Amino acid sequence: MNTPWTGRVEPFRIFGNLYFVGTEPASSHLIETEDGLILIDSGYPQSLYLVIESIWELGLDPRKIRCIVHSHGHYDHLGATRALRELTGAKTFLGAEDCDYANGKLDLTWAKELGHVYYETFEPDVALRDGDVIRLGSTEIHCVSTPGHTPGTISFFFEVAENGVRLRAGMHGGVGINSMTRKFLDAYGLPHDCREKFLAGLDRLKREHVDLHLGNHVGCNDTLGKARRMKHERRNPFVDPSEWPVFLEKCRANLQRQIDAERDGHS
After folding, report:
1. Beta-carbon contacts of residue 230 (< 8 Å; ≥ 6 apart)
2. What is the pLDDT of residues 104-128, one digit of tens each?
3. pTM above 0.85, yes or no
4. Distance in angstroms (rounded) separating the CA atoms of residues 180 and 148
5. Which residue, 136, 135, 131, 143, is CA-closest to 172?
6. What is the set of domains in the chain, with CATH numbers?
7. Rounded to 10 degrees, what is the CA torsion of 86, 91, 97, 99?
8. In whole angstroms, how far apart are CA 158 and each of 114, 138, 141, 204?
9. Strands 36-40 and 91-95, how do they pair?
10. Three-state SS for 103?
């Protein structure tokens, strides 16, 4: 069993009204708006107390969370949502095709693969679809359907502001190939076309301009390395428009290596 409570990360402001409040095993991002807070991914239930403490440490009030937005329906991204919704009354958002993961109808949250049991189920308030826009205050999160990692994976794009400078942040909703391996798909009787859908999603996202690349895991965009660098660099390392297309190509290469290995009988 993994131990999500051991991966505390000191919370920090990324840019303007955007903050990191997650843990090393599970990223969570917070957007401050005039009408309350938006949390992107709640993380593991075992580390919810760390997320709440991080929000307090930043001088913000977790009771003002109005929206909990999920990148996809896996345990490490929505496991804490039921408890957090009970605490805050926040509205919950999840890709439509993953809603049966959240409510427990489909046992595909990856909880048991992580050594856990998913029992704090919930019914999402809003089933997100391609092109939807989530609004709170002056913040608008534009949703792009990018299935593959899960059928309901959603990628997010929104603007953040600091000292009159507006930048566009972007997050791919799920790039792990663990749920696209032949072994996993065959074990659950799932179709293999998720791979083609994933690659098509990468092509779609190439057309998106992103100044500030966010990762729904810290390894996706070197969250922790950039956080360390922020302490002594004058330039914000999170702001890099060249990073997004490079990341997308790495995701394509990762999946292609897996497909090639399976074809050659190595996995």
Report:
1. 12, 236, 237, 238
2. 999 999 999 999 999 999 999 999 9
3. yes
4. 7
5. 143
6. 4-263 (3.60.15.10)
7. 20
8. 31, 11, 5, 16
9. unpaired
10. coil
